[in-house]
Design a protein that fits this description.
The radius of gyration is 13 Å and the shape is globular. 28% of the residues lie in helices and 20% in strands. By secondary structure, the protein is an alpha+beta fold. Strands 1-2 form a two-stranded parallel sheet. The protein has a two-stranded antiparallel ribbon with strand order 3-4. The protein has one domain. Helix 1 crosses helix 2.
Length: 85
Amino acid sequence: MWPEADILVGTTMGIVRRQLDRVGVPQRSQVLRLADLPGLAGAVVMNSWTPGVAVHRIGDVALPPAPAFVELLHRAYAAEPLVSP
């Protein structure tokens, strides 16, 4: 699930989304509220230096580390073919 929010859509997100699509991992965008957080199996932040670092807490809500999810994101990112100049 991708958050429907004011986020900076960047290169890392594009790569991960494209590669998850390629291997058939379902994705959707959704508005997330604090009340939705306890139902999540995990959460990550991503940016230009990593395709995923586990988030363990948002506000007062503890989140599971979800190592398999983090690994999936890293594998998806690494699967992107390099472009030669």
